[in-house]
Each structure stands twice: as structure tokens, then as C-alpha cells.
Amino acid sequence: MSSFKLSATLEGHEKDVKAIVSPFNDTIVSASRDSTVRVWTQTNGVWTSKVNFTSNGFVNSLAFDPISNQVISAGQDKLINITDIFSSSADAIYVLIGHESNVCSLDFSDNQIISGSWDSTAKVWENNQLKYTLSGHNASVWDVKILENDRYLTSSADRTVKLWQGSKEIKTYIGHSDVARGLALLPNNQGFASTSNDGTVRISDFEGNLIHTLVGHESFVYCVKLLSNGDFVTSGEDRTVRVWRNGKALQVITLPSISVWTVSVLPNDDIVSGGSDGVIRIFTRDPARVAPEAEIHAFQQSVENISINSQTVDDSKAVGPEALTVPGTKEGQVIMVKTLQGIIEAYQWSEGNWIKIGEVVGSSASEKKQLFDGKKWDYVFDVDVQEGAPPLKLPYNANENPYTAATRFLEANELPDSYTEEVVRFITTNTQGVNINQSADVYNPYSDSRNKVIPHTDYLGFTANTSATILKGLEKFNESEKTFTSEQFEKIQKDFSTNNEDALLDVANSVIESWNNKLPGFDILRLIVPYLKERPKQLSGVLKIGLSKTSPQIYFMTLRFLCNLFLNKVWGETVVTDAKVFNQIIDSVNLDTGIDPKHLINISNAVATLILNFSVYITKFKSSSLSLRLNEKIIEQGIALASYSSEAAYRLSVAYGNLIYVKPGLKNEKFAAFKKEILETHQESRFTDVFKDIDEI
After folding, report:
1. Which of 46, 363, 474, 673 gives a 20 to 30 Å CA spacing to 233?
2. Which pLDDT does position 136 carry in this prediction?
3. CB 458 within 8 A of CB 616
């Protein structure tokens, strides 16, 4: 398949383009920090635009209602505005009021709108009325998605992604080591992709199992979308749009824009990008839609002419021009080349060629540091804030994140946070270039900094709603078991649709007690246990059967049921940590040699999650007796469990960290051996972050 090439350049916004939706091949909607929403239409190959709506602040998020042809926009003024796509009226048709801070994300599906905000909540609106408020994140909600059957997905600056059923939080996904940003849903309910300030994109299923980690961006990753063939498209703070297939970068497109805030995909699979230069660019694989050669050349020149700050480049790593005759090692690789004239240029390996993406420029700052407030700085700017008043001093070092400097400046001078973006833009404009290798883990106060991984304080579960699958299993096996009449089965179907947990508990008990194939009964228990108001009377008998390991499928379903027990806020913690129950569970945790290998990944993930949940309980209640027994189990079984699944390894590492957080004396030679084995086997950065946190305890 051919690569993406420039198709069109759309200029009209005066500031950053923060959001784009692409409802039709000839129609694009964009939102900008210039306070406008624009609708772009293509006629006879020419794109033109008009302002659809003007806000009182930055417009940061968009969604589109294809039924009513309405644009949904929101941003800094905390309001959600709904306008007709073909209107240019000054007033919105509807205004949704409820958020207490900037609304940074929107999604629409089936007469529902979901919005995410810096106020740490997401809100679900149905027919333009508030239906749910999703409260549970500890920081800004950066992206939101609507799933089917009243389920929702949210990502947050608290580094987590959460799954919701109505207003109930039913699952928390951990894994990112920094702020979780954009979300995309995989087809056929297979899972989701999440981007992060840690520079990665994680592809996961809804059980929390990691499918792929996309590694290649050199800074924050803001946005992810899917093409119709399953390829992923991402954009970020490293000036790039990247196309991924099977976990690897297929193409890297570098733009003449510091931040590529957003990407969208047209119905014809063309890619649309928006960035900090205020320009929208369309890229296509269709030769019929490729831009004229002169426009492509101008685009390439604008990329080549980007200035890179000399203070962010290590001159000693620059290579000679002969390096350009050697093929790169991977798509997107960047090298610094020192020309015969002594100029340092940045080149990127793209589609089998080295492409120039910028030139390193010097600055007076490299020649002499300036003293301010007892410290030496590369730059000390004079900033006029108020007419007639003396300018304020803004110190900045070339190797720090502009957001760090902006926040420091605003706090020192007691100025409002709303000036953050203007200060950042001032710094960027006046420091002669971009930072080509800004680290992905640089602190960004504007995006909320990440918290430490340890201690981890949220219980995890296996809460996917598989009621349709359970019903099929019940129907199939009931043909031979003959337990339920057709009338009873109709009631069971209704009980699932109305979430009648007590009635479903009776069904589960009946299946477990009398059927040969007991798996549907255990799956029902897994699904309903977080919501049961009372402890099931048959619990001890259920555990005896489920933990006996006569069936690997029933064993791992029992483990999932036990994980979900922690999610029951009424009696779950009390029951699952009862000494008798705890010992019964822990005694069962081992990987018997007789288990079919095809079940070991599921079992190891479930065991690791269960151990992690026990460690969360220990962290909450400082239970020394439980911690010692759990520590013994991790030492005994941890390495074996971790060998079958990266996710199991990660959850066990977090659990070990929780135990050490409560009892630092457990950080001994046995822990050192565990840490060494895990780091040698699993190369993902999230493991480094966990053990770094543990080392600091």
C-alpha cells in the first residue's frame, strides 16, 4: 500500500487547532484557541471555510451529531455549545451547563453526549439533559468515549483509564507512567487504545490485558485514531503524525509545527491533522487526491526550515554527512548531521530515505548565562503585563519544559492560570527553535503531573459485561441439563437486562450445585458480585468447588470472581480477607504442571490481579499478618506467574511495591532477585517506573 502524502493545506485559524472532526469526505470541522469553530467544505477540489461559532475562550474539544447535523463544541468557558453545522449564527441552539472548569473532550453516540473536564469529572448528557456525572478520577479527564449499553470509557491525568456502567465505576486500567491522554475504541468491542505523556500508546482489551505497546514518539502523545484497515494514527508533541501496523511504525510524517494536538480520519481514510501553527493538513494515500508538486515542495521546505535550539542538542553526537548513505534502523529514527560547513542538521529516516526535518541554530544564550534571583538562566525576558507598570522578569532555561517555566512565572507573580498558554507561546516564539529531543517524562504542570505508581490504592477487577455470552451458554447446556423451562429462561433474560442481581444469584447457585458444566454459574457470580447487597450463603461451597482446579476454566473464573469481590463496597473486603478465606485462596495459588498451557495466561493475569488487590487492602489497613503471607506467595510463585504475561508481571511488581510501602523491611535480597528477573525479562518503561518508586521507599 502506498504511503500518505500531502493532499491539502487549510489556513484560517489564528491560533492552535486543538480538535478536528471529519463527518464527510468534503466537510471538516475544527476548533481553535482563537475561540472559533470553523466548518471547512470542499467544492471542485478547493477547500473554503466559514466560522460556525465563536466562544468566549479557547475551544478545545469537538464532537458531531450525524443525525441532526449538529456540531458540539466546548472549551475554556466551561460550556458545551451545540450548533447547526451549516449555520454561522452568533448563538448556539443549545448550551449545556454543568462543568466547573475547561471542557477538554467530547464524544457523541445515539442521542448521548459525554464530556470530560479539568474538574476531574465526566458528564453524560441524553437529549441535552444531564443523565450521569462520572466521579472517580483524581485529576483532569482528558478524553471520553461512549460504548454500548450505557457504558463509557475515560482517561485522566491521574494516569488511569476507567470503564463505567452508568455512573458506576466498574474497572480501572493502570499501566501508563504519566498522564493518560487520548482514547480510541477498537472495532467489535475488542478493546481500546490510550495515549500518554509517557510517550507510548497502549492497546488493551477490556479485561485489561495488554495487546501492544506502540513505542516511537519522542514526547507526549496527544491523540489516536483508527483507519478502516485497522492501522493506528497518532500525533504528539514531537512534531509528528505516525501510522502504525502490528505494533510497529509504518510511516512517520514530520510537520512544521511544535505540537500536533489532534488527528482525525475522513470516511475515505485520509488523515487530517491540527497543530500549534494553526494550520490544518490533509494527507492521502490516493494518488488522485495528492497535492500539486509545488505545494508538496513548499511543505517539505517548511519542515526543513524548522529551527532547533542548539542548547537541546548534544554536538558530540553529531555525525558526518557520510551517515546519510547508511540506511536507518527504524521508521522515524532521527540523527544529527554536521555538514562540511559546520552546520548541524536533523534528519529523519522516513520511507527508506533520510529527510531533513530541521536545522540547529545558535543563540546568545549559549554564549552567556544571565543571573536572576540568585540563579543562572539561559534567558531572562521582560514581560509587559500591565500598561504603565514595569515589566516582569521571566527566567527560562533552554532544556526545561516551557510549561514548567510558565507555571513558575505565574505563581511568582500571582497571575491567573488562564495566562499559561500565552506565556508558553511567548517562550517558544522567543527561544529560536524547538527542542528536538524533549524527554517524554518531562514534568508538564499544564497537563497535571503524574503521581507515583506506589502505593497503588485502587482495586482492579474483571467486570466485562458478557451477559450475551453467558445466556448462550445457559441456553446450550440447559438443553441437556433441563433445569430451566422456557418461561424461566425468559425471566433469566429479563433479569440480565434489568440487572436483577439477587435473581441471577439464584440462577448461578442452581447451575453450580447441579450442572456438570458449572462455568456459566461462576461467570454469573463474577458479573454480579460487586453489586450484591449481602454475602451469598453458599460462598464457602462455591470457593471449595472453584478453587479445586478440577477445571482450569472454572479456576480462573473463580479467581476473577474473587478479584471482583474486592469491588463490593458493602461486605467484599470483610469476607475476602477473613483469615480462613484468605488462607484458602492463597493455598490454591500455584501453577500446577498439569494445567493446559493455553489457560496459563488467563490464570496468571487473574492470580496477579488477586494478589494486587490483597496488597491494596494491606496498604489501606496496614495488615502485617496478611502482608507476610502474601509476600511469601510472591516470592514462591511470582517469577513463574510473571513469565506467562507482561500484565501479570506488572501487577505483581506493583503488589510487591505496596507490601514494601507498608513494611520497608521486605526490600531485601529476595526482592532484589525478583526485581532483577522482572527487569531482564520485561523491557517496558512502566517496570522501570515501578521499581524506581520502590527504590525510593
Report:
1. 46
2. 92
3. yes
